[in-house]
């Protein structure tokens, strides 16, 4: 699996988010790869209605219908066509009790949960919440040029040992098919990435290369 987190990159906002998501759809269709996108909340409805790949939210709040001004309601994500949610990204860290409550709410509305962790140990500590996936991303490598696969492969092996391969995703600095191949070989199901695609001159070529690593 490849998940591209659109974050708030300019190339991945509004109309550009739609075009970039369409490119992901094209590559998913051409390669048969499981490719998903995590888009900004305001872009989610349009993209999930018009792009035929799983679309995720980058966050939800553990609120219910009613008095929760300014929050992201899990039901709204689901009704807008969202299929999953990223929680606890290192740019959007949550207190443990909020994370637990958010995972519970996500499950109640049927969203696939991808929980981010900054280390293998932290990732393993989230197993008690039974998320669908745990994405281990060393924060110092996020958005950089060096991938976790090439610079710290031992983190992938250690994560696979502590978390198990079934739920494990790896991210930070992932840029090409070789990074994906290493991550898979060392025990991950797939990768979570952002800048390798959102900053690429030719995102389709990058995605084709990434997909070749699955
Ligand atoms: O959510 C993915 C992420 O934090 C990794 O970002 O830019 O290093 O691929 P990047």
CATH class category: Alpha Beta
Radius of gyration: 16 Å
Largest sheet entry: 8 strands, parallel, barrel
Order of helices and strands: EHEHEHEHEHEHHEHEHH
- What proportion of the residues is helical, as a percent range? 40-55%
What is the strand tally? 8
This entry's quaternary arrangement is single chain
In the predicted model, the low-confidence regions spanning at least 5 consecutive residues are: none
Strand order of the biggest β-sheet: 1-2-3-4-5-6-7-8
**Ligands and ions found:** SN-glycerol-3-phosphate
Number of discrete domains = 1
The general outline is: globular
CATH homologous superfamily (4th level) name = Aldolase class I
Structural class: alpha/beta
Please name the CATH architecture.
Alpha-Beta Barrel
Q: What is the helix tally?
A: 10
What is the end-to-end distance?
A: 7 Å
Mean pLDDT: 98
The name CATH uses for the topology is TIM Barrel
**What is the beta-strand fraction?**
15-25%
Q: Could you list some keywords that capture this structure?
A:
8 strands; eight-stranded parallel beta barrel; 214 residues; alpha/beta; binds SN-glycerol-3-phosphate; TIM Barrel
Element layout with pairings:
Layout: E1 2-5, H1 14-31, E2 35-39, H2 44-50, E3 55-57, H3 74-79, E4 84-87, H4 96-108, E5 112-117, H5 120-125, E6 133-136, H6 148-151, H7 153-163, E7 168-171, H8 177-185, E8 190-193, H9 195-198, H10 203-212
Parallel strand pairs: 1-2, 1-8, 2-3, 3-4, 4-5, 5-6, 6-7, 7-8
């Amino acid at each position: 699996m490849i998940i591209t987190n659109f974050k708030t990159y300019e190339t991945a906002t509004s109309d550009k988010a739609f075009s970039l998501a369409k490119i992901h759809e094209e590559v998913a269709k051409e390669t048969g790869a499981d490719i998903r996108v995590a888009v900004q909340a305001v872009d989610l409805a349009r993209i999930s209605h018009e792009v035929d790949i799983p679309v995720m939210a980058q966050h939800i709040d553990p609120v219910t219908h009613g008095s929760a001004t300014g929050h992201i309601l899990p039901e709204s994500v689901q009704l807008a066509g969202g299929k999953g949610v990223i929680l606890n990204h290192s740019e959007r860290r949550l207190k443990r009790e909020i994370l637990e409550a958010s995972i519970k709410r996500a499950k109640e509305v049927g969203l696939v949960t991808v929980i981010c962790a900054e280390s293998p140990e932290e990732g393993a500590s989230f197993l008690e919440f039974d998320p669908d996936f745990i994405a281990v991303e060393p924060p110092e490598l996020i958005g950089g040029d060096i991938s976790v696969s090439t610079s710290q492969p031992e983190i992938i092996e250690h994560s696979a040992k502590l978390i198990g391969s079934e739920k494990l995703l790896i991210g930070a600095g992932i840029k090409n098919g070789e990074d994906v191949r290493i991550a898979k070989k060392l025990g991950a199901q797939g990768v979570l990435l952002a800048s390798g695609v959102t900053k690429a001159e030719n995102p389709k070529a990058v995605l084709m290369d990434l997909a070749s690593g699955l």
